[in-house]
Write a structure and sequence with these properties.
The complex is a heterodimer of chains A (242) and B (117). Chain A is mainly α and 242 residues long. At the A-B interface, helix 1, helix 2, helix 3, helix 4 and helix 5 of A face helix 1, helix 2, helix 3 and helix 4 of B.
Amino acid sequence: MSSTDNLSIQAERRATRREALIAVRPALIATFTWGLVTGVALVKSGLTETAAVAMTLLVYAGSAQLTSLPLIAAGAPLWLIFAAGLIVNLRFLIFSAALQPYFQSLPWYKRLAYGYFTTDMAFVLFMPRFGEAEIKGTDRQRTFFLTTIVPGWITWQSSSLLGIALGALVPTQWSLDFAAVLALMAITIPLANSRPMFVSMLAAGITAWVGQGLPLQLGLLAAVVVGIVAGIWAESALRKRY
Amino acid sequence: MMEQLNAIDWYLYGAILLLALCTVLARASYHLFGHRVPLGDGVRRALRYAPAAALTAIIVPILLPWSEPDSMTMVIDQRLFAAIVAIWLFQKTRNVLIMIIGGMVAFWALRWFLGWW
């Protein structure tokens, strides 16, 4: 490869990085707020500061972390915490399936890293730009993706750690564990964006309320099954009507 | 670093490691193993409803707990009312921070009021 080729590649990468940074910047404010709230919620829901730091750094999934807090507080069995974590993360399985072609030529540890650091934000910024690309897996595409996930990770982790530090200063009597429930609601409410989805969530909510006396918090799994069935039923019932 | 891990620590760190595994499995499965298991339309549809159902199922028993095991009677306290205030604020403003702060203020005010009552 000649040095002029090399230079033009470098210049192109710089331009792509600049484009990605401009695209990601507004989303980082939301990421920061979320990280802060999640960090506070972790220490106020019974985790020690060390455990909260470990969870933030290892799990790197706000909705799964917030979901696990009431389960951990109730002493739910580990397999159920695992199942609940997997279920709220399912959207990432769809993301992974869509993103896989862009990274398939890389060695396995790089594919693992790109997958692990994928966020909602990175996916939402990436797909409108490169979803219809004829060649998938170009240097420009990967540079763009990398330049959105790195600031995302730094922002999330620093705001979460700040939240953990601030949360540790606040007295327990403030009941900030309720802020974790509110944060969970803020994730959940926007999901009720269609009638079948609303039916599904209503059915799941009723099942969860009736099933809260079940051992091992099996009401949660029952609610998920009922929610899926109700959603699919509502979808076809509404389609027949119109 | 020589502290003894007690049962609670094992449980807590076990949960954290399993949740980290969830992250890897959900985000990197297709990256690592390719499209060996195709994601059909039926599966995609089911996957769309599962997370919202799980999140709803976590929240409902916190806001509306039974007063005693097997009683099927509700406890209605400040949490439910504060949640309603929070939902209202969120619908009005679409701002997560306003929702959480407003919900907490409602929670504190109602707790103080119910205690005083």
